[in-house]
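Dear Dr. H.,

I hope your travels went smoothly. While you were away I took the liberty of generating a structure for the chain from your last submission, since the lab meeting agenda had it listed for discussion. I wanted you to have the full record in hand beforehand rather than looking at slides cold. The sequence, exactly as received, is reproduced here:
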Amino acid sequence: MQDNSAAAPPSIDIDVFGDAFLADPYAHHDVLREAGPVFQLPQYGVYGMARHQEVSATLKDWECFVSSRGVGLSDFAVEEPWRPPSLLLETDPPVHHRTRGLMNQVVSLLELRDLKARWQDEADKLVEGLITQRRIDGVLDLAQAFPLRIFPATIGLPDGGDDHLLLYAMATFNAFGPRNQIFQQTNDAAAPAIAWATSACERANLKPGGWGEKVFVQADAGLCSQEEAARLVRSFLSAGIDTTINGLANMLLAFASHPEQWRKLRDRPELVKRVFDEALRWDSTVQTFFRTASCDVEVANTLIPEGTKVLLFLAAANRDPRRWSDPELFDIERNASGHVGFGYGIHQCLGQMVARLEAEVVLGALLPRVAEIRLVGEPRRTLNNTLHALGSLPLEFVRA
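The corresponding predicted structure, in token form, is as follows:
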């Protein structure tokens, strides 16, 4: 119900999908947070939130702020989706409860425990070779190389699809923003990758024993249709590739930028399970997601009309000084619980356990072998409408 006392939100004249913002979003987040708990972005006809309290509450309130109308700028109620919507990210209950429940059966803690030793062995072999090399590109040689060693095989994807996987994931996350030049460049190049991803997720093309086949077993049990199973397998391709790659890369940059934290972790390896969450809080891989108001709803004395797209600045919330002390610092002793780098609420990232395990085994390979992680060149960012992505990270590993 509309409250006549609700205030109009302030308007901010910043292009949040422009090159300058995407290259360094943290330089602009103070302006967004200080504008108020809710603000307008008139260039895109949307509202925004950048403070932790409102962002986390909105992510949790799936009834008033729905995902089924798209978690990007496009409103699926009035626009045709560019691809069939994700049955996890872009649905609401009861469909979401059903699909998330069956996927939780596939990506279970028991499954991950069975994989840990194999993944650790792969991480050890990769890192040992990189230390011999000494100077590396932290993105290409480690953050990208490790997930591509283990993840396609875990899903049971056909061989030879690494380049397609990377381009498909990049195009997916660019599509959550406007149809700007960044989107067009990726989308124009992505047609073969999209075709490959569609084919690779079909039952006939999946290798036996992988998570992909296990999703289709759920379909055989009547928990979803065969067509839904293919779409759920496709969800792995965006949830488990670019986000994990950039999460690992940003973690390496965090340690290279805060060498005292690497020394602390080597002295106190029991802190290893805190590291990845603090790295995601410090530099969130997924910077933003949209929700759509399903009704007139008031937030912090601001009326948000039904049908309004609301852009949630996850990374800004993760450095909100109202929630975190010294938020600009990467501190592995910090309890980062409550960060929204994986989202929050029922739509929290399905792949978060996978990403945490990948980070844990990479750190397990690095800690006994690397005394220091040094930045030996300027990191290069790859602009993306949704992700804070590193294209290159020149590092030196000093052998322990």
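Two observations you may find useful: The two ends are 63 Å apart (CA to CA). The chain has one domain: 19-399.

With kind regards,
E. W.
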